[in-house]
## 1
Amino acid sequence: MAVKSPCVELCQFDGKTGLCTGCLRTLAEAREWKKMTDHRRHQIINERARREKKLAGR
């Protein structure tokens, strides 16, 4: 089964981290999501906690 996009339709990218404040993906990851393998999608989703900390610490 395909991994669902984490997009919450709040596309605002932080200038320092490059992460979307809504889904915590980079712009490149958001653009390429449909072309990624499920393995890569899982990797991105599994990095969510680390990315949240990175965004909070900016």
## 2
Amino acid sequence: MVRACVAVAAFGLALGSAAAAECKGTTQADLNACADADLKRTDTAMNAAYGRLMKRIGPAAQQGLKEAQRAWLPYRDKTCDLEALGAAGGSAQPMVRAGCLAAITEERTKRLSGYLACQEGDLACVGNLAE
């Protein structure tokens, strides 16, 4: 029972208070489905930010962004595989992994979105690389 409470608490932390409050699930299957839905939401937001950025930057920056994103995806997945080890073999593992994936994807979305709000003169901001 303590593990279940810890898993639900971890789920709430991973998804944030708004997403966790939206989940009306009471079973582990419900919680897993809520976590998966949140992951899909964050993935859609990240893909939208990525698409907007790709349209704004020049060819060299586009190639660099593609390479960075391709490298980032396995990093995210392996990080969350590691974090879900504590729930390995249990019914909460999909929830823990999806919560991790959503949290890291949300961080990536913030970074990509930040590139779209570059300050003039910021030479390190990808969004300024129009070539």
